[in-house]
Amino acid sequence: LQERGALGFERHYHVTDPFIRRLGLEAELQGHSGCVNCLEWNEKGDLLASGSDDQHTIVWDPLHHKKLLSMHTGHTANIFSVKFLPHSGDRILITGAADSKVHVHDLTVKETVHMFGDHTNRVKRIATAPMWPNTFWSAAEDGLIRQYDLRENSKRSEVLIDLTEYCGQLVEAKCLTVNPQDNNYLAVGASGPFVRLYDIRMIHNHRKSMKQSPSAGVHTFCDRQKPLPDGAAQYYVAGHLPVKLPDYNNRLRVLVATYVTFSPDGTELLVNMGGEQVYLFDLTYKQRPYTFLLPKKCHTSGEVQNGKTSTNGVSNGIHLHSNGFRLAEGRAHVSAGSVQVPQQSLPCQPELSTTQSSTSPSCSQSTARDSLIPTAPSSGKSGCRQDPNTQGSPSALRLACKTPRDGDHYDALRDCLKAISLNPCHLKAHFRLARCLFELKYVAEALECLDDFKGKFPEQAHSSACDALDRDINAALFSKSDNAEDKKGGGPIRLRATGRKDSISEDEMVLRERSYDYKFRYCGHCNTTTDIKEANFFGSNAQYIVSGSDDGSFFIWEKETTNLVRVLQGDESIVNCLQPHPSYCFLATSGIDPVVRLWNPRPESETLNGRVVVDMEGASQANQRRMNADPLEVMLLNMGYRITGLTSGGAGGSDDEDSSEGQVQCRPS
């Protein structure tokens, strides 16, 4: 084979399902004396750099399990990020640390050649770009994104983005990355649920024009009087998170993007959301947080076209926006990211059971009642995505879950709306939609949706499930007092601030209202303890998603199906870092243990792999309980105690049937 053809074949098939099933521990690289907080491959994949709490960086030959170089970086606190500078022959290494410093090292002489001290808080991430070989960026907890150019100035940096201008003084930048295919795009993760995508070129051009303008006066690189130019920033957020913020704050649960990365082709953005799940955003086919139309009545098949109904060109139905506020019907529209509907007319027939013929004119009342109650399957892969029109649809599975994961109701809402777009007269989808709205605290909308359901399906109006939901909604309406007043006086939840220090600017409010929703969600891991936990694409075609977890495991999902396919024990405490090799089925991980672990497909002759977590579903459920736990419980768990009872009002359930409610029983683990 020609070398070029061999390389293309190797990179296309270097991560396959059989390899994932055989993935196991190859070696442990020992040399650090503290937690290993960051890993970085060079472009060729023959060198691996690591940074640690011991303020040392080590360059490894991972293929031969050798330590090539170890040096003290000059930092006085934990190292959080390490990067090879592109086109430097793997000679220049950049580190960022908790001492607020960024250092540039020459590995050939083992010396620190540049030291930048412009940040005023911990530096969490460094980013580089192949198109700009002498330029790099840093994100720090002072809310600043700084840009460095080693050719122009070796002692100072320039502020590229100041998040405090938009989100107040309390905002912290946690992570950033540059699009590998178009280095003009920079993604930034910070405190809060929103992930930001910036056009670096537009920002530079805007500030150059400001400097050249005769009436502009004197401006710095980051002019505090001027916002970013229009179109230079796009925001992404899981649609349910803005309205969940008050609930999370009450539970002392922090939402923060701990890691962001682009897919190899630059068309997708992956985010590990601390306190939540892993989310994938499609940058090509963008989708607004779900805004859909619900038909007011069942139309005949001739009236339904492409899953939509219209009256004189004006959409007729309930219009739900992600912030919980109704938009005027005249402004109703289906966003560009809405579900594509097959080009055929669908019959208007309530689907009471998948076993019943779709042409049956009616069914008994008891069957209809039972059809409204979702049933959970006896088995199945975690996170399996199915057709929302089936009995075992994701909406049914999520609603039937004993302990729903955060975001399950929003995901079920998406499934219901997709089913309704395919068939506007889908009985189960309409009922579950009302229930999802109720669970998401959109009580008024849930009541209107339930009334709409009763009008469409009068034979279901007095079913036990319908009556129960009606009682719950009306009880919630009567109990809404303080929350209702807060919503009336405070505007959309996503826009409000709690004080002057975290006040949100008008520009920030506009950008948040224009945010885009996620495409896929990956569940099972836990990310509440550390704010450097990574999630990455695995494979040249990004076939898999990998993420660390607070339980010491790392999780592997199929990207397109979101199925959880593999869980491996990667650390005694927490797995923070996962960096796939650029061209082999080879994975480097690290965490609290002072070692770097290397993983690759093990020989077929090896029948026993002690690192495999067989009960993936059990591990996922345990992580969900951990994420919902009271912070005191998590602290006790980290101290080595097992919680056998929960305080009244705490999340989760007790493991012991005889434990009294309102008590906490701690046993040494």
From TrEMBL:
Region: Disordered, residue numbers: 345-396, 648-669
GO cellular component: Cul4-RING E3 ubiquitin ligase complex; cytoplasm
WD repeats by residue range: 29-61, 72-115, 538-567, 568-609
An individual GO BP term: negative regulation of fatty acid biosynthetic process
InterPro entries named among the record's database cross-references: DCAF8 (IPR045151), TPR-like_helical_dom_sf (IPR011990), WD40/YVTN_repeat-like_dom_sf (IPR015943), WD40_repeat_dom_sf (IPR036322), WD40_rpt (IPR001680)
UniProt superkingdom: Eukaryota
Transmembrane segments: none
Ranges of biased composition (kind: Polar residues): 376-394
Keyword vocabulary terms for this entry: Repeat, WD repeat
Feature: compositional bias, Low complexity: 353-367
Name by which UniProt lists this protein: WDTC1 protein
Organism: Leiothrix lutea (Red-billed leiothrix)
